[in-house]
Specification:
- Strand 7 and strand 8 form a beta hairpin.
- Helices cover 40% and strands 18% of the residues.
- The protein has 387 residues and is of the alpha/beta class.
- Helix 3 runs parallel beside helix 5 and helix 11 crosses helix 14.
- The protein has a 6-stranded mixed beta sheet, sandwiched between helices.
- It is globular, with a radius of gyration of 22 Å.
- It comes from Macrostomum lignano.
- GO terms for molecular function: ATP binding; pantothenate kinase activity.
- This is Pantothenate kinase 4.
- Keywords: ATP-binding, Coenzyme A biosynthesis, Nucleotide-binding.
Length: 387
């Protein structure tokens, strides 16, 4: 029964528990109604991607009709600490019949280590199925205030004004909503779910849980960290964010003033002089040398380059599926600076009519693994155009 899984316990030594806690990047706990766990027989899950390990488990809630969902994050270099964390925090049904659902390339690679540490039979759930099922389940079962980061206003920072030209006017017209549509554009299903882990993709999720891949994104989290290592000397996501926060894109990127006449009478229409246009464009025009550019400016341009690509991908996907409700998931968005850069790009690409929300957790894969069975792929993964 589920009760075997939800009583907290200490199965490890105090030293191992302390070590696991020391390596914990973050832990979030959200409240679930018990109805959300109906027919779910495995109450824990692991998703080990190419750089981060996501661990989750379920415990009893503060009332008879609730559970608590614990979401923990570790670097892959501390993978064993993540396993110790799971072993020390929750009772798992070890021995005969004990089972754990996992996903992600690392869980396949380190299958024997997981089994040795936790004493459980492992069942691997397809990674794409895990992402789509996890996102659908979270959106359906958690209120928006627990599921997503609070909404904030765009901090335009070093950029002022807004581009106004035929291209922008056309984009604005495409995404213009009537007052009735705006009133009904609540974050809900059906929706687009964009996840960015090592790779990424945009998925159309239906109310019944069926999912359709709209497009994939291979220049995603793994490449982002790779660019950071080559350009900045670090593959630490947090360090890249802190550098970008202090940088100025205009020192590396082409701005409006560098390329066109920005006055109202110019052939390209009114365009803010400080509007960044081509990421890293000045490297070509001014023959910039990397060692003479600040890491802060390079980081700011790098972050913006990935975001610009993503924003345009989202706008195209929204147009293709006629969808205004968008959820963004994955640890790519966990830093406030990244979310602010997304908001800035939304502002300048006239995408305010899209209802974009950011999941507070990158555990969609681990959630999907926990709640799914391998045979669910036949039921939920669909191909071709959404119907």
């Amino acid at each position: 029964s589920n009760s075997k899984f939800i009583q907290q316990s200490s199965q490890q030594s105090p030293q191992r528990q302390a070590m696991a806690d020391n390596f914990l990047i973050e832990e979030k706990i959200v409240t679930l109604q018990k109805s959300a766990m109906e027919n779910v027989t495995v109450m824990a899950g692991i998703d080990r991607g190419c750089s981060l390990t996501k661990v989750l488990f379920v415990t009893a809630g503060n009332s008879d009709d609730t559970f608590k969902l614990h979401l923990a994050l570790f670097n892959n270099t501390h993978f064993e600490a993540g396993l110790d964390y799971l072993a020390s925090k929750a009772i798992l049904q070890r021995g005969e019949g004990g089972k754990l659902h996992v996903t992600g390339v690392g869980c396949d690679r380190y299958r024997e280590l997981i089994q040795e540490k936790l004493g459980l039979e492992l069942e691997f759930i397809d990674e794409f199925l895990s992402q789509t099922r996890g996102a659908h389940w979270l959106i359906k079962n958690l209120p928006i205030e627990e599921l997503c980061y609070p909404e904030t206003e765009a901090d335009l920072g070093q950029i002022t004004g807004r581009a106004e030209n035929p291209l922008q006017a056309n984009m604005n017209q495409q995404f213009q909503l009537s007052s009735e549509d705006v009133a009904s554009a609540t974050p809900s299903l059906p929706c687009l779910f964009c996840f960015i882990g090592s790779a990424g993709g945009v998925i159309f999720l239906k109310e019944n849980g069926e999912s359709y891949l709209v497009t994939s994104l291979w220049m995603a989290g793994k490449s982002f960290l790779g660019f950071g290592k080559m350009l900045l000397g670090t593959s630490s996501y947090d360090e890249i964010m802190r550098l970008a926060e202090r940088g100025r894109r205009g020192n590396i990127d082409n701005e409006g003033r560098d390329l066109v006449q920005t006055g109202v009478d110019g052939p390209y229409g009114r365009m803010p002089a400080s509007l960044p246009i081509f990421p890293f464009g000045k490297a070509v025009d001014l023959e910039l040398e990397r060692n003479k550019c600040s890491k802060e400016d390079l980081a700011a341009s790098m972050v913006a380059a990935f975001v610009t690509n993503l924003i345009n991908l989202l706008s195209t996907s929204a147009k293709m599926t006629d969808t205004r409700s968008i959820f963004l998931g994955g640890n790519f968005f966990r830093d406030p600076f990244m979310r602010q850069e997304m908001l800035r790009q939304q502002h300048f690409f006239q995408m305010q009519s899209l209802n974009v929300h950011y999941l507070i957790t990158g555990h969609t894969g681990a959630v999907g693994a926990m709640i799914s069975e391998p045979t669910d792929a036949q039921r939920y993964l669909k191909f071709g155009k959404p119907t």
